[in-house]
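Q: Convert this sequence to structure tokens.
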Amino acid sequence: IRDSPQGLAARIHAVATDPAHQRRGHARAGLTALLADLEQEGVTLYELYASGGVPLYEPLGFPSDPALMRMTRFP
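A:
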């Protein structure tokens, strides 16, 4: 978490699930909990760096952009 001109910002660099446990909702549950906790801390800008996983990230509000998925929330 860091300060930015738009408020507090958080950068997520990696979301991974062990192959033996994939396709069970673990990554979605973990990322949903992380975003909720960060929002409670006052984060308003989220940057997610990902090379794939659009079906996971889009429903959570991250636009589909293979170079940078970025979402801004306003309280």
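The chain has two helices and four strands.
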